[in-house]
Amino acid sequence: MLVALHGFTETDQVWSDFFAGHHAVRCPVLPGHGGKPCPPGTTLASTAESLARHLAPDGGDDLLGYSLGGRV
User: Fold this and answer.
1) Phi then psi for 67, rounded to 5 degrees?
2) How far apart, in whole angstroms, are the C-alpha atoms of residue 12 and residue 20?
3) pLDDT (tens digit, 9 = 90+) per residue, 38-64?
4) 63 forms bridges with which residues in the sheet?
5) Mind listing the pLDDT tens digit for each residue in 14-23?
6) Angular region, 67: left φ>0, alpha ψ -120 to 50, beta rest
7) How far apart are CA 48 and CA 50, in angstroms?
8) Phi and psi at residue 54, in whole multiples of 5°?
9) 3-state SS, one letter per residue, for the chain
10) Fewer CB near the last or first residue (10 Å), C or N of the chain?
11) pTM more than 0.85
């Protein structure tokens, strides 16, 4: 599975045209974007840790990040 992370001020919709028709792609919304709250104390590290908990345990997922998504 490919996990594509959007950039700062963007949402998962930034990838919609690019990955149209591809079913093996997940595009989560990062905290503080697209109406998703950003709890106090959220950091790049805590966001990465949260994301890692949802990745395939066997390491079978690939990550693609743009801007903020790349930093995560």
Assistant:
1) 55, -115
2) 12
3) 999 999 999 999 999 999 888 889 999
4) 3
5) 998 899 888 8
6) left
7) 5
8) -105, 5
9) CEEEECCCCCCHHHHCCCCCCCCCEECCCCCCCCCCCCCCCCCHHHHHHHHHCCCCCCCCCEEEECCHHHHC
10) N
11) yes
- Residue 26 sits at φ, ψ, to 5 deg, of -115, 140
Rg of the Cα atoms in the chain: 12
Place of tokens 């093996």: 24
Q: Is 60 left (phi over 0), alpha (psi -120 to 50) or beta?
A: alpha
Contacts of 19 (CB under 8 A, 6+ apart): 2, 4, 25, 27
